[in-house]
Amino acid sequence: MGGHFEAEESPEDCLLREVREETGYTLTSWQFRGLVTFVSGDGETEYMSLFTADGFTEPRCPAMRTAGMGGQRRCAEVKYLGRR
């Protein structure tokens, strides 16, 4: 999962917000793994912070997802598949 920084947001704050917005989960344990650099053909550089997480609290609903631009929330089924 991924997203974009909000103004004045740290990488950790962005991580927590994006996970919460996309899944409804709240991370309780995570680790920074590195910074990925993308350089486009026109020389523009973008960066991506990479994290792994192994602790979270589950939402009241299996998943809270934002539906459409209106920001309406609905429940959707989510299953943990474990490590492969």
Number of helices: 1
| Morphology call | elongated
| Portion in strands | 35-45%
Describe the strand arrangement of the main beta sheet, using strand numbers: 1-2
Query: Sheet with the most strands?
Result: 2 strands, antiparallel
**Unreliable spans:** 65-71
The assembly state of the depicted protein chains is single chain
Ends distance: 18 Å
Describe the overall structure.
The protein has one helix at residues 11-23; strands at 26-39, 45-57, 64-67, 72-75. The protein starts with 10 loop residues before the first helix and ends in a 9-residue tail after the last strand. By secondary structure, it is an alpha+beta fold. The chain is elongated. The strands form 2 sheets. It has a two-stranded antiparallel ribbon with strand order 1-2. The protein is 15% helix and 42% strand.
